[in-house]
Specification:
The complex is a heterodimer of chains A (209) and B (222). In chain A, the strands form two sheets. In chain A, strands 1-4 form a two-stranded parallel ribbon. In chain A, strands 2-3 form a two-stranded parallel ribbon. Helices cover 44% and strands 11% of the residues of chain A. Chain A folds into two domains: 16-50, no CATH class; 53-208, Nitrile hydratase alpha /Thiocyanate hydrolase gamma (Nitrile Hydratase, Chain A). Chain A is mainly α and 209 residues long. Chain A starts with 17 loop residues before the first helix and ends with a helix. With 222 residues, chain B is α+β, with helices and mostly antiparallel strands. Chain B has two domains: 28-116, Cyclin A, domain 1, CATH 1.10.472.20; 137-218, SH3 type barrels (Roll), CATH 2.30.30. In chain B, 29% of the residues lie in helices and 16% in strands. Chain B is built from eight helices and five strands; from the N terminus they run H-H-H-H-H-H-E-E-H-E-H-E-E. Chain B has helices spanning 28-42, 48-56, 60-65, 68-82, 88-93, 113-116, 172-175, 193-197, and strands spanning 137-140, 159-169, 184-192, 205-212, 216-218. Chain B has a five-stranded antiparallel sheet. In chain B, helix 1 runs parallel beside helix 4 (68-82). Classes of the chains: A mainly alpha (209), B alpha+beta (222). Chains A and B meet through helix 1, helix 2, helix 7, helix 8 and helix 9 of A and helix 1, helix 2, helix 4, helix 5 and helix 6 of B. Strand 3 of chain A pairs parallel with strand 4 (205-212) of chain B.
Chain lengths: 209, 222
């Protein structure tokens, strides 16, 4: 039901791939039928290319590291807590923050598709949506972490969160040592995307300088 | 459905390959596809569960061989054809040929794009109290619906513990088939790795899923 049972005849676009031609054709049809405005598509793309990205989640993490009342609120109801931070834009419902501790490391996956906290981290990376991560994260999380050059103490509990519904999980990584007195802005610079998925750690003060 | 999209626990896909400084899109068309899916969803042509179902129903060899956004494109084409928004001859010719079927919410306007990027709200009034409570032992039912479900195969038949109640939410199994929202209680259920993968599994690993009430049955306390 899916592969083309037809052929495109766009000789003037011979430099374009079959996929590109198909995408153009579909957009043309949908615009001609009045279903969509190409300018709205431009705006969606621009939002993900320029505004919505892991810097949003990083500010939330840095705030949690700096403000224990905020951290408590974040762990209780992350959507509600994030909305109190005016500068992080709009966040959807059903966001859950999970805290890494010396005893427990959290890791997020979506084995069924690509569920990911887009409004906190932007578009998911290709590896997050690809078969190797989706298949192995729930069965061999330590092996997956090794692919990221991440290793945890043998007795650290690993909790893998498979995002099978509309809950979106944000990992709250541990604050790096040697950051006493740092401002939220400085701390946010240490927070990597992968540290909020659970496949990495924040940068250390040494590595960031 | 027991599709190839349900990948948890499969072997043989190789190593995870992180990419340094990955761009938002690797090809321009990927952004167009993402935006088309968002715009048509916002217009009310389909809900998120139906769009997921159409990607899952791609034939396994196509699913596995296609890039992420290629899957989105193929699923979107199939969905729009099935629901009568576009026709196969239109796709073949690259132009509209007939009248447009109305979309429920109307075309996504430029000024509403920002709002459309905020994730939807899936919680609904509960028709009945929640059956399970935190601490309850539950078994993921051994069910194999041929249509859309969010109960991953690797948990079916296995026993976990309810860790938290996540509210009463739109039931994807119904919504995907356009059978209504049929709200159901949702629970985070945590499993020991050994329960899912056998006695050789890493004893430090626990895995949780978000499971709707119809996926679960109570297991009497030991």
């Amino acid at each position: 039901m899916t592969e083309p049972d037809h052929h495109h005849h766009h000789d003037d676009h011979s430099e374009l791939s079959e996929t590109e031609l198909r995408v153009r054709a579909l957009e043309t049809i949908l615009a001609e039928k009045g279903y969509l405005d190409p300018a709205a598509l431009d705006a969606i793309i621009q939002a993900y290319e320029t505004r919505i990205g892991p810097h949003i989640g990083a500010r939330v993490v840095a705030k949690a590291w700096s403000d224990s009342a905020f951290k408590k609120a974040l762990l209780e109801d992350a959507s509600k807590a994030v909305r109190t931070l005016g500068h992080t834009g709009r966040v959807g419902d059903h966001l859950v923050a999970v805290e890494n501790t010396p005893q427990r490391h959290n890791m997020v996956v979506c084995t069924l598709c690509s569920c990911y906290p887009w409004d906190m981290l932007g578009l998911p990376p290709v590896w997050y949506k690809a078969a190797p991560y989706r298949s192995r994260a729930v069965k061999d999380p330590r092996g997956v972490l090794a692919d990221f050059d991440v290793s945890l103490p043998k007795d650290t509990e690993i909790r893998v969160w498979d995002s099978t519904a509309e809950t979106r999980f944000l990992v709250l990584p541990m604050r790096p040592n040697g950051t006493d007195g740092w401002s939220e802005e400085q701390l946010a610079e240490l927070v990597t995307r992968d540290s909020m998925i659970g496949t990495g750690f924040p940068k250390t003060p040494e590595a960031s300088s | 459905m027991n599709g190839v999209h349900d990948m948890g626990g499969m072997d043989g896909f190789g190593k995870v390959e992180p990419e340094l400084n990955e761009p938002a899109f690797h090809e321009k068309w990927e952004g167009r596809v993402l935006a088309m899916v968002r715009a048509m969803g916002s217009a009310g042509a389909f809900n998120i569960d139906t769009s997921r179902f159409y990607r899952e129903t791609l034939p396994p060899h196509v699913y596995l061989a296609s890039s992420y956004y290629r899957k989105w494109l193929l699923g979107l084409e199939d969905l729009l054809i099935d629901k009568g928004f576009v026709t196969k001859p239109e796709i073949a010719s690259g132009h509209a040929q007939g009248n447009a079927k109305p979309v429920k919410k109307g075309k996504l306007q430029l000024e509403n794009v920002e709002q459309s990027l905020v994730r939807g709200q899936f919680e609904r009034p509960a028709p009945a109290p929640a059956t399970f409570k935190p601490g309850d032992r539950v078994r993921a039912k051994n069910i194999h619906p041929a249509t859309h479900t969010r109960l991953p195969r690797y948990t079916r038949g296995h026993v976990g513990v309810v860790e938290r109640i996540l509210g009463c939410q739109v039931f994807p199994d119904s919504a995907a088939m356009e059978l209504g929202e049929n709200p159901q209680w949702l629970y985070n259920v945590v499993f020991d790795a050994a329960e899912l993968w056998g006695p050789d599994a890493d004893p430090t690993v626990k895995i949780s899923i978000d499971a709707f009430e119809p996926y679960l049955e109570l297991v009497p306390p030991i």
